[in-house]
Design a protein that fits this description.
alpha/beta; Rossmann fold; Alpha-Beta Plaits; eight-stranded mixed β-sheet; five-stranded parallel β-sheet; 25% strand
């Protein structure tokens, strides 16, 4: 019977001659994807018998697998596996020095190699060792003497499983990359701790903060200037300036809340509380004037800006369903907005609470000048101040 090898009555030489003369037909049921990939797949054949290696290489070639590398011992096999990518290893159990079991252990202990499928080639009386190999992580085994059809079935099965695992890994990597893009987009809208809470399934996200410092800024005469610019130029200029503000805000560990037209709003002291929020927000305000001066110099513009600050408690949370946003509520927000609208161009206008926080934590780095009280809705007249750097 062609391809049949009687176990005990055929010697090694007769067995090899019979295999070399056998030409079994290609397997039915092999996926079109696998058949198309076969010429590009790389297989490492490991056996100390050159004749057995030749037989295996011949059979693989008949399957369309032509990129085959051979190793005559376990150490050479490990060197090749570490230096070249392979889709499958056919590994003989019995070899001098480092046998197949030892090679398998090394492969499965190596994070870079453990995904490599391994088919153990072993004599029929090595059942106990075969079981151990499967437990360690071998994909399959092939008994000697072997049928070419059985060889093909197990090689195709291993390669198909590897192909599917590779596709799954690529899919997961793609999903991971898309998740990173989504996270990055969400972090451009929301603070990172809020993003984490959203990812965990929270739908009603809000927190109270006993003390933060809020900054509002607004361009003076911007509406008139904008009427003389085309849309693209207007957006380009605003993006240029606000990008400078964004970078400074990030470097100081502050949280940008939003922009509304030419107005810019940020806060210090949330979502992660910090005791120096007033100092850092004042540094931001003074730095924004530096950024505006550099912007005017580079663009030949003459834009001016008012900045107002207030310190106090707020409620922060996420609102909206389709275009959600992170926002702040409370009288502290209203007073900060009033500090901006009643401020002076080129000066940092602050409330009494912010001035007190700067005196307590500013270390004498700022000059705080009293200004006339300002009428605030619901509060009446409130004291105000302008802040600058202390003269040396």
């Amino acid at each position: 019977m062609p391809g049949h090898v009687p176990g005990g009555n055929t010697g090694p030489g007769e067995f090899l001659i019979q295999l070399m003369n056998d030409k079994p037909s290609q397997m039915a049921g092999v996926s079109a994807e696998l058949a198309a990939l076969a010429p590009s797949m790389r297989v490492l054949v490991v056996d100390d018998s050159r004749m057995l290696r030749r037989v295996l290489i011949r059979e693989l070639a008949d399957m369309g697998i032509v990129k085959v590398v051979e190793a005559s011992d376990g150490r050479a096999a490990m060197d090749m596996a570490r230096s070249q990518p392979f889709d499958l290893m056919l590994l003989d159990m019995e070899m001098p020095e480092l046998d197949g079991l030892g090679v398998l252990r090394l492969i499965k202990a190596d994070s870079a190699l453990r995904a490599l499928p391994v088919i153990m080639v072993s004599a029929a009386d090595q059942l106990a060792m075969i079981v151990e190999c499967i437990q360690i992580g071998a994909e399959d085994y092939l008994p000697k003497p072997f049928e070419p059809i059985l060889l093909r079935a197990r090689v195709y099965s291993c390669l198909e499983k590897k192909r599917l695992r590779d596709l799954e890994r690529e899919r997961l990597e793609l999903l991971h990359m898309e998740q990173l893009k989504t996270d990055k987009l969400m972090m451009n809208i929301l603070p990172w701790p809020v993003v984490e809470r959203l990812k965990q399934g929270e739908t009603n996200i809000s927190s109270s903060y006993p003390e933060v410092t809020i900054l509002f800024s607004d361009m003076v005469g911007f509406t008139q200037m904008a009427s003389n610019l085309c849309a693209s130029e207007l957006v380009r200029l605003l993006n240029n300036l606000f990008t400078r503000f964004d970078r400074r805000c990030t470097s100081l560990g502050l949280e940008k809340i939003k922009t509304i037209g030419d107005a810019y709003m940020l806060v210090g002291g949330l979502p992660i509380p910090r005791s120096d929020h007033a100092v850092q927000v004042v540094e931001m305000a003074l730095g924004m004037f530096d950024d505006l001066a550099a912007f005017n110099s580079e663009t030949s513009m003459e834009m001016q800006m008012r900045i107002g600050l207030n310190t106090g408690p707020v409620v922060a949370g996420v609102i909206g369903f389709t275009k959600f946003s992170y926002d702040l509520w409370g009288n502290t927000v209203n007073v900060a907005s009033r500090m901006e609208s009643t401020g002076v161009s080129g000066r940092v206008h602050v409330s009494e609470s912010t001035a007190e926080s700067l005196r307590a934590r500013g270390g004498g780095a700022y000059e705080i000048e009293s200004r006339e009280p300002v009428q605030c809705k619901g509060l009446g007249l409130v004291p105000t101040f302008v802040v600058g750097r202390a003269k040396a």
